[in-house]
Amino acid sequence: MHRYAAWHWATPQAQHVLATGDLGQILRFHRHVHGLNQTTLGEILGYDKTYISALELGKRTLDDLGSRRRISDLLRLPPHVLGVTDPADTDHRSMIQFGESAVRLAEIARQSGHASEAVAELWPLVARLESRIEAGHTEREVLHLLARARAGLGVALGNVLPEERLSTAANWTAKSLHVALYFEDPGFSSEVLRLHGNELRKAGLRGAAVHRLQHALALAPTSDARAAAVPLLARAAGTLGDASLFDATIRQADDLLDRVDHTSLFNPYALHEIRLRGLAVTGRADNAIGLADDPPSCTTTVAPQWHVIEQITVAGVRLRAGDHNGARECLDIAVREAVTQRLPHQLQRITRTAGGQLPETRADAEQALSRLRQELAA
Questions:
Q1: CA separation for the pair 312, 314 (Å, rounded)
Q2: Contacts of 117 by beta carbon, 8 Å cutoff, 6+ apart
Q3: I need a surface site. Which of 70, 78, 125, 364 has the fewest CB within 10 A?
């Protein structure tokens, strides 16, 4: 049997079948998914082929709760699907509720500049969900929660890991993508593709990042979903050095600014940083220099890490303009904030930006990074 055959329980077709609560339809769908005949399914459930056939055709019914509970366990389905409510089913529902809360709290922590707390929140949840999947329980709600938890864990790790370990973050979001695609939900697929693409960019896989983010934008079903994907695609296009794609994507972002609600990651302030960095890396440093000292006002609460990212980018532009003092001020602020928020990747960016032009600032960033590495190793 294909490793992911049981994941067909997560598809819209399966949801329609399960919603009927009809044992016959459920048995037929199970056989279809796993490639079983009635004889083999009968052997699994302890019935002969004739009885399985009668159940599927609705000529026989199975009303006693004990038998239905046993079938739900053998087919790895939550008991309530077959009309059975018991302590195991209650535990299942409690786990889902707890998991949903954990994912929401982790996202709030990460957006508030506490990515390490988000990691601590998601690690045990992911382990618990993966254990359930390995045991053969592939309910749609469990798979959906697992995809979200893996994606959240990957993004949080992308904040707290140093550059040489960012592939770990991309691997976790990739695991999320493998699950999400089974749901045949464009909005959900777009979201996970967007998160995965951004972690690929941070890990240095620029071409793959652009491909994933373009796919995310193509699937985005709403203006809000497009607004979430467009700035990340612009950043990836700039990193790849594709000036044409960068410019086209920035124009889309500018157009969306007046049509969607601003968020902590999609707002004029964040786009200003993306525009500066993209212009600088696509050979238009003069344009970036002209914009560096004219940041837009914040229209919403900005994620704390964006203040660090913005300071580093502006410092790089000021160095290109020969403004060493201005660059030093920006990087000193960035070092302090990166330490507070425990952002080793940003400290590495500071080190590269300071280079040989600001040796004292570079040394401060290197020392701070060393301390964070020691904490990570511990």
A1: 6
A2: 106, 109
A3: 70
Rounded to whole angstroms, how far apart are CA atoms 293 and 314?
A: 8
pLDDT for residue 32: 84
Can you give the CATH number for the domain in which 32 is found?
A: 1.10.260.40
Biggest distance spanned by C-alpha atoms of the chain: 85
Averages of pLDDT over each 10 residues, the chain, 378 residues: 50 75 87 88 91 90 84 78 68 82 92 88 90 75 91 94 92 92 89 97 96 97 96 96 96 94 89 94 91 78 85 94 94 94 93 95 95 78
* pLDDT of res. 217: 97
Q: Please tell me the predicted confidence (pLDDT) of residue 86.
A: 62
Give 361's contacts (C-beta < 8 A, 6+ positions apart).
Answer: 328, 331, 332, 335, 350, 354
Mark which of 84, 115, 143 sits at the end of a domain.
84
**Crossing angle of the two packed helices 206-219 and 186-202, in degrees rounded to 10:** 160
**Does residue 112 lie in a domain region?**
no
Residue appearing with tokens 């939550």: 78
pTM of the model: 0.79
Q: Is residue 66, in this structure, part of any structural domain at all?
A: yes
Domain boundary, last residue among 84, 116, 151: 84
